[in-house]
Amino acid sequence: MIVAFSISPSAADETGSVSEGVAAAVRVVRESGLPYELTSMFTSIEGEWDDVMAVVKRAVEAVAETSSRVGLVLKADIRPGYEGQMSAKVERVQRLLGE
């Protein structure tokens, strides 16, 4: 499964940035060892259901250590029997675009 998620603390710094809280979440993702991609709006991770959801939970908990309220947006692509789809899905579209 692939999960794209965005975690945001309710408390921002003096500039309105939430990057410190987001960095705490991304550290959890990196330490998990699961394949992941970081974009400006979402982090995507790939793995088995229990592993992926455990990482998301730990990431939320990491952000909650510095913020009394945490927002989570999550989208999942559940396709049993497939691995390596974060890159394979993109490659299929790029092939069709002639890239």
Automatic annotation (TrEMBL):
Signal peptide per UniProt: none
Ranges of residues in domain Thiamine-binding protein: 3-94
Gene Ontology cellular-component annotations: cytosol
SUPFAM superfamilies from the UniProt entry: MTH1187/YkoF-like
Pfam families with a match to the protein in the record: Thiamine_BP
Family: Belongs to the UPF0045 family.
Name of the protein in question: MTH1187 family thiamine-binding protein
Native source organism of the sequence: Nocardioides acrostichi
